[in-house]
Design brief:
It comes from Cyprinus carpio (Common carp). It is found in: Cytoplasm, Cytosol. Pathway: Amino-acid biosynthesis; L-arginine biosynthesis; L-arginine from L-ornithine and carbamoyl phosphate: step 2/3; Nitrogen metabolism; urea cycle; (N(omega)-L-arginino)succinate from L-aspartate and L-citrulline: step 1/1. GO terms for molecular function: argininosuccinate synthase activity; ATP binding. With 387 residues, this protein is an alpha/beta fold. The chain has two domains: 167 residues, 3-Layer(aba) Sandwich (Rossmann fold), CATH 3.40.50.620; 111 residues, Argininosuccinate synthetase, chain A, domain 2. 44% of the residues lie in helices and 20% in strands. The strands form three sheets. A six-stranded mixed sheet has the order 1-4-3-2-5-6, with helices on both faces. A five-stranded antiparallel sheet has the order 9-8-7-12-13, with helices on one face. Helix 3 crosses helix 4. The protein is globular and about 85 Å long.
Length: 387
């Protein structure tokens, strides 16, 4: 759903700009500054599931002089076209960050460019600062799809005028306030009973979630993901406080909460290991790391990212089945799994049933693998003798 509001257009203008607008301090200052510089501004707000007062943001943009205000509901396409590929990839940056912010940027920027074309705007603009990752993510997407960008936080006339922003941010101290998290409860205050869920996957994508006790089921992508956010948030799942390496070379502190994504990561890892060949999975893991870096660094619309997505999608053909898990006190516990495409052979691994595996075959296998170790030890021994 799109909401669009129009106001009068200035007679003299340097051009029309579509601004990715949030209603916050930065983008409100940018909207005013662009108007002062002689541009007409269209404010674009994207609903990707955040807790936002869109009516208030719209009224603020109108008051500041936006020519039009677009409020776009991107939640369904965000889940299906961006989050699901990340789930298939087990995408995690630097082993901990589930990329919720990073992966939202190409979704938002794509719609921003579509509005710019629709409205015949000459420019797109954003409020990302000159030290952050988002400037790269927004602009690489925009340059891939639309060439003209105004980035105020890198224009001296803008950032020299708005140095006061630093003073407004001094409240952020080493120990964050307890109400910093918006989606998740403190695990200490979460329910004393776990929620047991069953998640069904087809080709690596979640297609249904069922609450075992209540019998509640969700099977549309947006409802499924929102339900997992609700359950995970209730139990304080998915909180992290990390120091991460920004693409531009500096380290920064990040505090994130990804309740639904954390539940899906645990479930998908489990069903993937259950159904995927070992060597294929090793290659796929390396592709997942590369995919995570590409998302984080803003290269969603690059040829290499498209290639990696196709490879990961191919790897998911047999990732099918059901995972049962418990969500409780900040943790996700896997309880079991089943799949028609399981590679787990109980008879083959049983100590009680020999099947078609001859234990004697292991002797040659072990000896061959020991050759390298014996040679390494021989070389080390020779080196010690010469000392």
């Amino acid at each position: 759903m799109c909401v669009c509001v129009c106001v009068c257009v200035s007679e003299m203008s340097k051009g029309l700009v579509v601004l990715a607008y949030s209603g916050g301090l930065d983008t409100s200052c940018i909207l005013l500054w662009l108007k002062e510089q002689g541009y007409d501004v269209i404010a674009f707000l994207a609903n990707i599931g955040q807790d936002e007062d869109f009516d208030a943001a719209q009224k603020k943009a109108e008051k500041l002089g936006a020519k039009k205000v677009f409020i776009e509901d991107l939640r369904s396409e965000f889940v299906q076209e961006f989050i699901w590929p990340a789930v298939q990839a087990n995408a995690v940056y630097e082993d901990r960050y589930l990329l919720g912010t990073s992966i939202a940027r190409p979704c938002i920027a794509r719609r921003q460019v579509q509005i710019a074309r629709q409205e015949r705007a000459q420019y797109v603009s954003h409020g990302a600062t000159g030290k952050g990752n988002d400037q790269v993510r927004f602009e690489l997407t925009c340059y891939a799809l639309y060439p003209q960008i105004i980035a105020p936080w890198r224009i001296p006339e803008f950032y020299s005028r708005f140095r006061g922003r630093k003073d407004l941010m001094e409240y952020a101290e080493n120990h964050a306030p307890s109400d910093l998290y918006q989606m998740t409860k403190n695990p200490e205050d979460s329910p004393s009973e776990p929620d047991v869920l069953e998640i069904d996957f087809a080709k690596g994508v979640p297609v249904r979630v069922t609450h075992v006790k209540e019998g509640t089921s969700k099977d549309t992508p947006l409802e499924l993901f929102c339900y997992l956010n609700e359950i995970g948030g209730k139990h304080g799942v998915g909180r992290i406080d990390i120091v991460e390496n920004r693409f531009i070379g500096m380290k920064s502190r990040g505090i994130y909460e990804t309740p639904g994504g954390t539940i899906l990561l645990h479930a998908h890892l489990d069903i993937e290991t259950f159904t995927m060949d070992r060597e294929v999975r090793k290659i796929k893991q390396s592709l997942g790391i590369k995919f995570s870096e590409l998302i984080y660094n803003g290269f969603w619309y690059s040829p290499e990212c498209e290639f990696v997505r196709h490879c990961i999608d191919k790897s998911q053909e047999n990732v099918e089945g059901r995972v049962q898990l418990s969500v409780f006190k900040g943790q996700v516990y896997i309880l079991g799994r089943e799949s028609p495409k399981s590679l787990y052979n109980e008879e083959l691994v049983s100590m009680d049933v020999q099947g078609d595996y001859d234990p004697c075959d292991a002797s040659g296998f072990i000896k061959i693998n020991a050759v390298r170790l014996r040679e390494h030890n021989r070389l080390q021994g020779a080196a010690q003798k010469t000392l």
